[in-house]
Design brief:
It is a single chain. A hairpin with a 2-residue loop joins strand 1 and strand 2. Helices cover 78% and strands 1% of the residues. The protein is mainly α. The protein is globular. Strands 1-2 form a two-stranded antiparallel ribbon. Helix 3 packs antiparallel against helix 4, helix 5 crosses helix 6 and helix 9 packs parallel to helix 16.
């Protein structure tokens, strides 16, 4: 078994043990609370674990260059704490997905019903009074909030084994910064979906780029790496180098996500074809399209994108419009340029060679993925 696979197994064990303990606690309060933990645990069993892997290999890579003297016992304690840190990041990400699916009204996540849909189904199957939709909304908000609290609990407990007080503080600061930035990016994303038509089309690409910087690039790639490296006692220069690698890679990651959200295979992505179009996402892909459309076509394009109810023929029209405008080709070129920038930055980093190779493999997986 490779080191990465072993880590993923340990993360899953950590999360399952945590959820099992919470289930016992909740059952003592009321058996009605069991679905809260069940839905959480089910969601935590899926995903690519990119954030966890970037965190871990940045920690490994920074250990060799950081001026941190540890005994074998201390190194073992740090390794155990790193598993909990990565589990905390996975818990936080799952919480964000619960809220994101609710905001976007996405019916599925990873090929299964999203959490708010599971609560709706529970309401309907139980024959309860009131609105299943409102119950689904309430349940998913509360589960997402609970998972945010649990992620902080996991993270805080892990940092009790931080090598030094300075490292503990540095990691807490990076974690706090990540939480603020991703919420800022999420709000800007929601704002753009609603306010785009009141703003110049010429500004749409710039606004969409700002959204992906904070909602995805910093949160998905940069922040996990900075947390991992900070736990190794990385120097400021090392942290800057990781940012130079992580931010363009995170931007490329989101551009790929935008393409998959419009053109991805539902059998592979686990989401309906053209799901981003149904949700009215104002992505870089859409912004590049809008820049080139004549007014008559742009009006139709915007009306469809804001309707939130599209049939197969309308989705096909939007997809073809994006292709014909040249926006798909432009987005793919942007993605490749950002990927090249990221990989060049990685090459210049003084990291443990084994860790550098693993980070490169992760970067290529992020860029070339189909889901």
């Amino acid at each position: 078994m490779t080191e990465s696979k072993a880590l993923l197994g340990l993360i899953q064990e950590n999360l399952d043990e945590f959820c099992n303990a919470r289930r016992v606690e909740f059952e003592m309060i009321s058996p009605d609370l069991v679905p809260v933990v069940d839905y959480t645990q089910d969601l935590l069993r899926g995903g690519k674990r990119f954030r966890a892997l970037f965190t871990y290999w940045s920690w490994v890579g920074a250990l060799e260059s950081a001026d941190l003297q540890q005994s074998e016992q201390q190194r073992a304690a740090s390794a155990e704490a790193m598993v909990s840190i990565t589990a905390a990041l996975e818990m936080f990400h799952a919480a964000a997905l619960v809220h994101d699916d609710l905001l976007d009204q996405s019916d599925t996540r990873r090929g299964a019903p999203s959490v708010h849909k599971r609560f709706e189904a529970l309401h309907q199957e139980s024959g309860w009074a009131g609105s299943p939709e409102r119950f689904g909304t309430a349940g998913s908000v509360l589960v997402g909030d609970l998972m945010l609290g649990w992620s902080s609990e996991l993270f805080g407990n892990a940092l009790l084994n931080a090598p030094t007080p300075e490292i503990e503080t540095a990691c807490r600061n990076e974690f706090s910064k990540m939480r603020v930035e991703v919420m800022a990016g999420q709000y800007l994303d929601v704002l753009e979906e609603n306010a785009a038509l009141t703003r110049p089309a010429s500004e749409s690409v710039g606004r969409a780029t700002r959204v992906i910087l904070y909602k995805t690039a910093k949160y998905s790639i940069e922040a996990p790496m900075l947390i991992g490296a900070a736990f190794a006692g990385a120097t400021p220069a090392m942290l800057r180098g990781l940012s130079a690698f992580g931010i363009p890679l995170g931007m490329a990651f989101q551009l790929k996500d935008d393409i998959l959200g419009v053109f991805g295979d539902p059998e592979v992505t686990g989401k309906p074809a053209g799901d981003d179009l149904r949700e009215g996402k104002r992505t870089v892909l859409v912004g590049l399209t809008r820049e080139t459309l004549p007014k008559s076509i742009a009006t139709i394009f915007d009306e469809l994108l804001t309707s939130r109810v599209l049939d197969g023929e309308q989705i096909a029209f939007l997809q073809q419009t994006i292709i014909d405008s040249g926006a798909l080709a432009k987005t793919e070129r942007m993605m490749q340029e950002l990927a090249d920038e990221s990989l060049n930055a990685l090459e210049s980093l003084e990291l443990d060679p084994r860790a550098k190779e693993q980070l490169k493999k992760l970067a290529l997986l992020v860029i070339n993925r189909d889901a």
